[in-house]
Prior knowledge:
Phosphatidylethanolamine-binding Protein; three-stranded antiparallel sheet; 30% strand
Amino acid sequence: MKSINYIILLSFFLTQTIIAMQLSSPAFSNNSKIPTKYTCSGEDIPPPLSWSGIPEGTKSLVLIMDDPDAPSGNWDHWILYNIPPTTTGLAENTHNYPTGTDFGMNSWQKAEYGGPCPPKGDDPHRYFFTLYALDTKLPGHIAPSKTTITMAIEDHIIDQAELVGLYERPL
C-alpha cells in the first residue's frame, strides 16, 4: 500500500508544470528592436508590458528598465515599485498605474519613464526590463534611486523575469 501511495504521489508531481515568471510586450519580442515610438526619437512613451507566473506569496512587484551599454555606465530609464502582485501588466503610455505603485528616480533625475535615447553614433544599445517578485512591500520613499531599491529588495526576491529590447537610431 505504501508503494502505491508513493507512485500516485510521484505521478502527481511529475504531471505538474512549474510556471516560471514571464515578462513580455506585445510591441516587441525579446532581443528585438524597440519600436521608435517608445524612444526619444519618437513619442517617448512607455511600451505595453504584460507578465504572468507570479509566484505564490508575492507581496509586491518591482520593474526596472536600464541600459548597461550607456557610455557613462548603467543608465536607469524607469523604476516602479510596490506594484500590486495581482497586476498582470501595464498599458501603453499608461498614466493610470495600479493603486499603490511607487516611482523611483531614473538617471535623468525624474520619477517617470524615459525611453531609449543613446548618444548619436553609440548604437546599438540593449535595454533590460526586469520584473522582480518580492515577499514584502517596500517602505514608501520619495523617488528613491535604483541603488536604494536594489539594496532594499536584495533578500526579498522570490523570482524575476527579464525582457530585452534593442535600440538603433532610425535612419
